[in-house]
Task: structure prediction
Amino acid sequence: MNGASSSPASTGPGDQLRERRAAIAADLVHRQFAANPALQERYGPAGRAKCLEDAHFHLSYLADAMNAGAPVIFSNYVAWASVMLTKRGIPSEDLARHLGFTRDAVLAGLDARPAALAVEYLSLAIDSLQALPSELPTCIPPQGPHAVLARTYLAALLAGDRRSASQLVLDAVASGLPVRDVYLHIFQPAQREVGRLWQLNEISVGQEHYCTAATQLIMSQLYPQICAADKTGGSLVATCVSGDLHEIGLRMVADFCELDGWTTFYLGASTPAQSVVDTVIQRRASVLAISATTAPHLGAVRDLIQRIRATPACADVKVIVGGSPFVVMPDLWRSMGADGSALDAAGAAALVRRLTTARAAGSDAAPPDAPSQP
Result:
């Protein structure tokens, strides 16, 4: 287990970029529109404002990737953005040019050392754009477990038929399909497919939100079975860090641990760090599960873990982390000060078992290097 730390969050190489983000974003958009006056005619004032907004997002991801020491996090984000923008009529060449102007702006707006690192990350991302596919494979492959059921479930949600989707799941469980399989092979791939469809501009934000809200409601209908599991484990607190509103993956983790016999305290989205620490103490939790959906949430993850490590009452608490940044960079949990990470809810539950079994046996050995997976 990593040692406790009572020091405040350290200064990272991306912090100066974050502090100067507004000025750098304005500079790079000015450079981009000055170099190509046709952009003003093509997109107008609203397009320029959207370009500035996108620049803020890009710079935020870049700063957090720099702080994590992980260029792959920024390159992965650029890959996602490239597909998303292409499907909305903005060619990848425009994104590459935008990132080129970003290099010029960070060189002008940052001190030499952070500027050099930012340019390195930007250059790697620009180079990777050339090899990116324009299409993304479905998240519900035909050969996947219960693929027909998952596709039928998603089709009902996309049609706005929550009642049919719910009945489909309840009937499957009544026929013997384990709740764990429903989560792993229906809910999880369906939600990932919803994200893919939005990225490809094939569904609206409203449809995406509807599908997520409906899935959460249907999950709650399974709670009588989930909560009926014998409580043989300890207490676990599950939370999204402050600012992170994507909670469904974490809810699945809490439910899997509940099925494993843990008493879980699910705090949900965007919970302030000190409130999490207080809850861990009040509930005498043995494990804290933290979710971070995107790179800009990593600073909050690090801050929360540092608070836990600096609190004597939390000295024995095991901390696990999950979310997209930890999938992209499997060893990232180490630099965050956590005890391990997992790829999905089943992997998280398995990791909790390993960590707490090792502690019960008096072992302080580190978990395996690879993230847990089913």
Notes: The radius of gyration is 22 Å. The domain at 147-224 is CATH 1.10.1240.10 (Methyltransferase, Methionine Synthase (B12-binding Domains); Chain A, domain 1). Residues 38-68 form the longest helix (31 residues).
